[in-house]
Here is the input.
Amino acid sequence: MNKWYINKGPDSDVVLSSRVRLARNFVKYPFPHKTTPEQQKQIIKDTKDALFKGNQQMAETFKYYDFVALDTIEKSVLVEKHVASKELLEGKRESGILLSSDEQISIMINEEDHLRIQCLATGMQLYETLEVCNNIDDLLSENIEFSWNDTIGYLTSCPTNIGTAIRASVMMHLPALVMTGYIKAVIEALGKLGLAVRGMYGENTEASGNMFQLSNQITLGKSEEDILLSIKNITTQIIEQERALRKQLLQQNKYELEDRIFRSFGILKNARIITTNECLKHLSDLRMGVDIGIIEDISIEDINEITLLVQPGSLQKKAKRTLNSNERDIVRAKIVRDMMNKQKYT
Here is the structure.
């Protein structure tokens, strides 16, 4: 069964994925940074009980991953799949995640808040991911009393999450905006509109492979619907700009664009050593080539799978051992060659 991140979705030529995350805290425990290890363990137990109690379907769908017991590679893989955060990976608390079998839904426990309920989907599917999160939230609320204020809304560790306590985001592939230099103006405009633009793995990460994460910064005083509508409207405008610029590049600089894409195609197919950033750069060119019809012999699904497999944690898991930087670059190149050449290109 393909995981959610392999498949295509609505507008997935520009929007790679959508995510909604809800922050929730128990009334009966202090915020995570004030909890004891015993309380942290009890929060984990209470959450599992609330999800599984009398619900066989949930028990069969979700698996619990104990972050204390996982090794560094396994933790890194979960972060690379976007089902766990870097903060959870680096935290010192008793923590873990409840993860659905398709890896689309995750419940992070004892991160910055007691719970982070998250749903991901390919393409532009913000409303669908919100519905899933709300269903999980409703189920947990039957057995857990969450911190709530009638005036403010949900109470969270970080003041920026107070209110609806929702973070909605889209991961966008914007090579044409980058190539034409318009991306800087777009990012500046988004900041003025109260939206954050980050890299592949959220805060303090680079926009590798021309991938940018767009999310709301304000939750207080706005409804979930208002937040999602704002992100959807702005994302729609960016989609239109990116598509128009791709068309313009193809019309005005056809040979230069084709040369760039086919050079990346050749490097990925033949490289013997390649870094993560270089690989993502060439995969970005290849993805655009597929989306605009220049490359026809590889699918977006294959590119999605390669993009995950070349990440440091995922390739070490595939190699079944810890690798140093140079070894990772060699293994990465072999993984890409194998996946590219299985297509039997001519």
